[in-house]
């Protein structure tokens, strides 16, 4: 007698051609491990129409969008990568959505670097499309918390819609002594 193994729960089932395959189909329909894989998690979101009525919408959960939002949070708050491994952060994300899969600080660094490379390439293309000249300015500043000094290089240009644009193209800490070679190396 032939045996078939469920790829989800690893349970062995008979697979004799004389018995048919409906029992395999029934097992797949109620296999607890497959159910978790097939669920398309939808969250309800409410929208209020102009007439004041409320309409419920289904929103499919997207893990990559959640990760991207966390990356932007780390950037905007200048949070350390270890934040994603802290117990409180994981508890919060689990409560916000039980479908969220936690990830390590190494994964956060890797994804953030990939985002940086993509944004850098987009910025290069955006500046290359500028019809006029690109002006560069530098600014030095000192962090009031740790007294470290930084230099920031900003590109200013006019886009195709005649709107003045400015983008930071380089940001780096300065190490004493502050002479021309330090600025050239930055």
Automatic annotation (TrEMBL):
InterPro entries: RNaseH-like_sf, Znf_BED, ZnF_BED_domain_contain
UniProt keyword Metal-binding present: yes
SUPFAM superfamilies noted in UniProt: Ribonuclease H-like
PROSITE patterns for this protein: ZF_BED
Signal peptide residues on this chain, from the entry's feature table: none
Subcellular location: Nucleus
Name of this protein: BED-type domain-containing protein
Species of the source: Anisodus tanguticus
């Amino acid at each position: 007698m032939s045996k078939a193994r469920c790829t989800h729960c690893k349970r062995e089932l008979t697979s004799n051609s004389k018995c048919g395959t409906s029992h395999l189909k029934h097992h797949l329909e109620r296999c607890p491990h497959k159910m978790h894989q097939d669920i398309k998690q939808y969250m309800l979101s409410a929208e209020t129409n102009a007439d004041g009525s409320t309409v419920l919408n289904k929103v499919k959960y997207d893990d990559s969008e959640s990760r991207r939002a966390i990356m932007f949070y780390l950037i905007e708050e200048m949070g350390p990568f270890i934040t994603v491994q802290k117990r409180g952060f994981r508890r919060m994300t689990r409560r916000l959505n039980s479908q969220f899969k936690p990830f390590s600080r190494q994964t956060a660094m890797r994804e953030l670097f990939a985002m940086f490379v993509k944004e850098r390439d987009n910025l290069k293309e955006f500046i290359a499309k500028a019809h006029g000249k690109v002006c560069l300015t530098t600014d030095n500043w000192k962090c009031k918390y740790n007294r470290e000094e930084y230099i920031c290089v900003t590109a200013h240009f006019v886009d195709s819609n005649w709107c003045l644009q400015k983008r930071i193209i380089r940001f780096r800490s300065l190490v004493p002594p502050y002479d021309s070679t330090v600025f050239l190396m930055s």
